[in-house]
């Protein structure tokens, strides 16, 4: 009877251990198969998710021994939370400035491991044909999340419409930091996903390119003014993001290489009309002041 009791306890322990192993595998941690293929879950949304599905199906991913799963999650905060909780291994949707802002606001320590592109933000209007013709008292719609509010204000400054205080914070700066507003612009904060839908209701609206594309707009052709790749816009470069403990994972680091390879770049060019400008720089470039 004692032998049977000990055998039963041992079997129960094995079942518990197996269950724990199963839960761990489902937590978002990447797994490596017997043939060396690593499964990686990439969290993404919109056109970025479309690109990563293309990469997942590519021969280059197979050659790199990566089995890439794409999990679509709506909302930037939700995406970063899912990454922090390891529901996904890495995410692909946000700018460097957005990441810095999220970490500051949430107390998280998510880490960028590769740059991908600059997706220019543009200034759009259905009423004005030239940025020089913005009228006095024009109503300007800006995204209501801190990183994109700041990004929009910097773009308005680059267009010559306002001036911002010295030391303006690219992650958390606000309309309170406007030091010169010669055209007496009025600012309205909106959910940035609604940008294309409010063009008729305001004089100017600032829209990130992912949202613009979904609204049938091409930033290079339809905007009055848009960002260019330069040291002044490096905080707006998009990055691949993971948790601190995974930043040196060899499989995750391969994702940056897959994004910048010739096949992926040709696909992006064909699908998005040059509006996702390839940027292949080390993360240290973004960290430089």
UniProtKB/TrEMBL annotation:
Belongs to the NlpA lipoprotein family. It is found in: Membrane. Transmembrane segments: none annotated. This is Metal ABC transporter substrate-binding protein. The keyword Lipoprotein applies. It comes from the Bacteria. It is a lipid-anchor. InterPro entries: Lipoprotein_NlpA (IPR004872). Keywords: Lipoprotein, Membrane, Palmitate, Signal. Pfam families: Lipoprotein_9. Residues 1-18 form the signal peptide.
